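Appendix C: a fully annotated inverse folding record. The material below is reproduced so that readers can follow the format used throughout the book. The structure is listed first as C-alpha cells, followed by the designed sequence.
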C-alpha cells in the first residue's frame, strides 16, 4: 500500500532529524574518545565504552515499560531537551570522572529514546509499509554514522573539544523540534494500562522467546554479537599493525563498511513483510557476514579488505532492516517499546562481553587470528543455533 501524504511527510521529517541526531552523537563520541586518549589512560577508553553501553542493558525493562505507557511525541521531545543539556555539561566539564558520569547519564536518555523512536516508526508509516520506513531510517542513520567520525575529527582539530559537543546538543534540540512537528502520535493503549507492572516490564522478553519467528533471529544475532565485539577491538590493530596500513586507511576501511550498510539498507526497502521470509533473509545475511569476517582475517594486504568490508556492510544493512521489520510485524503495537528495548539489551550485553573477551584475546593471539576465530565461531552459531531455531519458524508457518 502506498504511503499517504501525511505518512510521507512524517517519515521524511523523522529521517531528517534523526539523521542530524545520529550525526551529532557520532561526532560527540569520537570527540570524547579523542579527549580521553589525550590523557593517555587505556582504562579510560574502556570506562567510556562501558558508560556508553551499560545503561542500555540495565534500564531496558523500565525504558520499554515507560515508552509503551506515555504519549511518544511529548515524552521524546522532552527527552531530547534533557539529552541536549547533558551534552552541554560534557562540553563544559572536561575531567575524567565528570566525562564518564555524564556519558553514562546521556546513555540513560538513549536507553529510552532508541526504543521510543523505533516503536514510533510503524505508527507513522502504517503496518503495511514498515519495511519501506525502516529502510529509509536505517539508510539515513548509516549516512550519519559513516560521516560522523570524519566530521568529528575535523571539528576537534578546528574548534577544540567543546564545540563538537555543543553541536551535538543542537542536534538534540532539532530532534525535539522535529518530534513535536510530527502529525501522528503513538499513544498508550488501554490494555497496557490494565496489566500488572511486573508482568509489563518483562513482557518484551517473554514475547521474544515465545515467538517462533523472533526467537530464531534474536538467538542467532545474540550469539553472533559474541564474535563481533572481539572483531571490533581487534580491527584497528589488524589494519594498522598486521597489514601495516596508515591511520587514514583504517578510517577508509570503516567508511567502506558504512557505505555498504547504506546500500544494504536501501536495497532492503522492497522486502516482503512475510515473517518466514524475513527470518530466512536475516539468517542468510548473518551467515554471509560470518564468512566475510573469516575471509578478512586471511587477507595479506589492506586493499583486499575493502571489497569484503563493503559486502559485509551491505549484509549488515539488510539484517538491520529485516529484523526491525520482523520485530514490528510480530509484535502487538502496545508492546513494541518493550520488545525493541529487550532486543537492544540482549545484543548490547553480548557485544560488551565480546569486547572484554577481545581485549583478553589480544594479549594471547594475533589480531588476524581473532578475525578467523570470530568467523568460525559465528558460522557455527548460524548453522547450529540458526538452523535448529529455523525449524520452529517453518512449523509455525505450516500451521498458518
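Designed amino acids, in order:
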Amino acid at each position: 500500500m502506498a504511503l499517504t501524504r501525511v505518512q510521507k511527510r512524517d517519515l521524511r521529517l523523522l529521517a531528517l532529524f534523526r539523521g542530524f541526531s545520529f550525526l551529532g552523537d557520532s561526532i560527540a563520541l569520537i570527540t570524547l574518545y579523542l579527549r580521553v586518549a589525550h590523557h593517555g589512560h587505556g582504562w579510560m577508553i574502556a570506562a567510556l565504552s562501558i558508560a556508553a553501553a551499560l545503561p542500555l542493558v540495565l534500564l531496558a525493562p523500565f525504558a520499554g515499560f515507560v515508552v509503551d505507557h506515555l504519549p511518544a511525541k511529548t515524552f521524546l521531545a522532552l527527552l531530547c531537551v534533557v539529552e541536549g543539556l547533558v551534552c552541554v555539561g560534557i562540553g563544559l566539564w572536561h575531567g575524567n570522572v565528570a566525562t564518564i558520569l555524564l556519558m553514562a547519564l546521556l546513555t540513560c536518555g538513549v536507553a529510552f529514546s532508541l526504543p521510543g523512536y523505533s516503536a514510533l516508526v510503524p505508527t507513522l508509516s502504517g503496518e503495511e509499509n514498515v519495511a519501506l520506513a525502516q529502510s529509509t531510517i536505517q539508510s539515513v542513520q548509516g549516512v550519519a554514522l559513516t560521516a560522523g567520525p570524519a566530521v568529528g575529527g575535523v571539528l576537534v582539530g578546528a574548534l577544540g573539544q567543546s564545540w563538537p559537543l555543543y553541536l551535538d546538543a543542537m542536534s538534540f534540540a532539532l530532534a525535539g523540534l522535529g518530534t513535536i512537528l510530527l502529525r501522528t502520535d503513538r499513544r498508550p493503549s488501554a490494555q497496557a494500562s490494565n496489566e500488572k507492572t511486573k508482568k509489563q516490564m518483562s513482557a518484551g522478553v517473554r514475547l521474544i522467546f515465545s515467538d517462533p519467528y523472533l526467537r530464531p533471529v534474536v538467538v542467532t544475532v545474540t550469539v553472533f554479537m559474541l564474535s563481533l565485539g572481539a572483531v571490533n577491538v581487534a580491527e584497528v590493530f589488524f589494519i594498522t599493525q598486521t597489514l601495516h596500513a596508515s591511520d587514514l586507511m583504517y578510517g577508509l576501511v570503516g567508511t567502506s563498511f558504512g557505505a555498504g550498510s547504506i546500500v544494504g539498507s536501501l536495497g532492503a526497502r522492497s522486502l516482503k513483510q512475510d515473517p518466514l521470509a524475513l527470518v530466512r533473509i536475516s539468517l542468510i545475511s548473518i551467515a554471509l557476514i560470518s564468512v566475510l569476517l573469516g575471509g578478512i582475517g586471511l587477507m595479506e594486504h589492506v586493499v583486499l579488505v575493502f571489497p569484503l568490508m563493503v559486502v559485509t556492510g551491505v549484509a549488515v544493512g539488510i539484517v538491520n532492516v529485516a529484523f526491525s521489520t520482523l520485530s514490528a510485524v510480530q509484535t502487538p503495537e502496545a508492546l513494541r517499546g518493550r520488545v525493541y528495548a529487550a532486543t537492544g539489551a540482549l545484543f548490547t550485553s553480548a557485544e560488551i562481553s565480546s569486547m572484554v573477551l577481545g581485549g583478553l584475546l589480544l594479549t594471547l593471539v594475533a589480531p588476524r587470528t581473532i578475525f578467523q576465530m570470530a568467523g568460525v565461531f559465528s558460522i557455527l552459531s548460524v548453522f547450529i543455533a540458526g538452523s535448529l531455531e529455523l525449524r520452529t519458524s517453518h512449523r509455525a508457518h505450516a500451521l498458518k
